[in-house]
Amino acid sequence: MNKKYRHGPNSTVTDIAFLLLLFFLILAISTQQTPLPLQAASAHAEILEDTDISTIVVSHTGELFLDGSSIALDSIPRQDTYALLADRNTPYEIIHPIITFLKERGVGTLYCLVEDHP
User: Fold this and answer.
1) CA 73 to chain centre
2) What are the structural domain ranges in the chain?
3) C-alpha closest to that of 82 among 59, 65, 94, 62
4) Residues 43-87 pLDDT 10s
5) Residue 18, exposed/middle/buried by CB under 10 A (0-12, 13-18, 19+)?
6) What is the pTM of this model?
7) What's phi and psi for 13, nearest 5 deg?
8) Is 58 in a helix, a strand, or coil?
9) DSSP at 74
10) How far apart are the first and last CA of the chain?
11) Cα(97)–Cα(40) distance, integer angstroms
């Protein structure tokens, strides 16, 4: 008794395995969640009516101006509230030390001023 085995292509098994693998990969990517439950921050614009707030202007080269006069970072007087206006091209490396200095000085509120676009 000689049994003959038919050896054919097993492409159907390979196709099914590939489709299952693809299905589980897509499912794993689409159900990815953040590791912690987060509430995203929201922002809103507020028009300041109080003109008594001192404004610090920062140029793209790092020059500081307090209410229109040139000033050094160490010379900024201690106040509770400031407004900060920076040039659009000012790198963060220049702004970060200013914010850190104001925080260490005890500034409670720092308004970041932006242009109004309708």
Assistant:
1) 26
2) 54-112
3) 65
4) 566 666 656 788 888 888 888 888 888 889 888 888 888 888 887
5) exposed
6) 0.57
7) -65, -40
8) strand
9) G
10) 90
11) 26
